[in-house]
TrEMBL record:
SUPFAM superfamilies documented for this protein: beta-lactamase/transpeptidase-like
Domain of life the protein comes from: Bacteria
Pfam family name, one: Glutaminase
Gene name linked to the record: glsA
Protein name, UniProt field: Glutaminase
């Protein structure tokens, strides 16, 4: 199935991004991520008919980092349903992704599943009743299934790099543990968390994996029902309000789509009914979100008329 308009828009945007000098700075607090070339750029859009429009480094795997939190949230909701909301909230934080301040005021309950503290609490729930290796295998297999691609792996160097330096995440986990919010040994939960953040995927694989969110919980090509339409809608709502941390308001204002960023420079965005979109540009803005990723998505939604708030 062809979509010439989409192909043209995606190619145009990739060309425009290649000319830009403003790229932001790659994440350096995870040493392994500091080595990534800031000139990388990939964009893949998969429309409702399954047409794939791809440009730039569309097939180069990168560290998905916090984008993994969308998929761990989906798995945890499948396991615990609404019980999940006893240990994590659903409000935007207005704070940095690794902030600890609100945990003190809210008795160790993180604001939402996408800030680090919230994602660690979600990971702890997935881990319960399993060995860390099994929990990690479940997360990885879920992504392989969604993307229809069994070649997706964890980048062990990135996981180890974060394990050596992730003192802030260790602080968050220990703090939550002191309030009884985590059930498992902190080092196990953190180990699974660091490893799922270190999953490496290309824009093509990521856009494939996000299709169920764009189409009421179903992958339209395979007919697989991943989650109910209600659950897909709610995950999208959380991505819109919390997916870019304290940059979520700006992302909604400029792009107008549910989206989830990662400090590897990737963004997964969902145009409900229209498309699943993955973009990768490693340079970040001050809130830790991909700078050119946001610029590219703003251009895409404008030209395609895909903002959920109107054309
Ligand atoms: N693994 C990263 C961390 O915990 C994820 C953060 C992100 O992508 N925003 O710091």
């Amino acid at each position: 199935m062809s979509n010439q308009l989409l192909d043209r828009v995606v190619a145009e945007i990739a060309d425009e991004m290649a000319q830009r000098a403003d790229r932001g700075a790659v994440a350096s607090y995870i040493p392994e991520l500091a080595r990534v070339d800031p000139r990388r750029f990939g964009l893949v859009v998969i429309d409702a008919a399954g047409h794939v429009a791809a440009a730039g480094d569309a097939d180069v795997p990168f560290s998905i980092q916090s984008i993994s939190k969308v998929f761990t949230l989906t798995l945890a909701l499948g396991k615990a349903g609404d019980r999940l909301w006893r240990r994590v909230g659903r409000e935007p934080s207005g704070s940095a992704f690794n902030s600890i301040v609100q945990l003190e005021h809210e008795r160790g309950i993180p604001r939402n599943p996408f800030i680090n503290a919230g994602a660690i609490a979600v990971t702890d729930l997935i881990l319960s009743g399993h060995q860390p290796r099994e929990a990690l295998g479940e997360i990885l297999r879920f992504l392989q299934f969604l993307a229809g691609d069994s070649s997706i792996v964890i980048d062990d160097a990135v996981a180890k790099s974060e394990q050596r330096t992730g003192f802030r995440n260790a602080a968050l986990a220990n703090y939550m543990k002191s309030f009884g919010v985590l059930d498992n040994p902190v080092e196990y939960t953190l180990g699974v968390y660091f490893h799922h953040c270190a999953i490496a995927m290309s824009c093509r694989q990521l856009a494939m994996a996000g299709r169920f969110l764009a189409h009421n919980g179903q992958n339209p090509s395979t007919g697989h029902n991943v989650v109910s339409s209600e659950r897909a809608r709610r995950i999208n709502a959380l991505m819109l309000t919390c997916g870019h941390y304290d940059g979520s308001g700006e992302f909604a204002y400029r792009v107008g789509l549910p989206g989830k960023s990662g400090v590897g420079g990737g963004v997964l965005a969902v145009a409900p009914g229209n498309a699943s979109i993955a973009v990768w540009a490693p340079g970040l803005d001050a809130a830790g979100n991909s700078h050119l990723g946001r610029v590219a998505l703003e251009a895409l939604t404008k030209r395609m008329g895909w903002s959920i708030f109107g054309v």
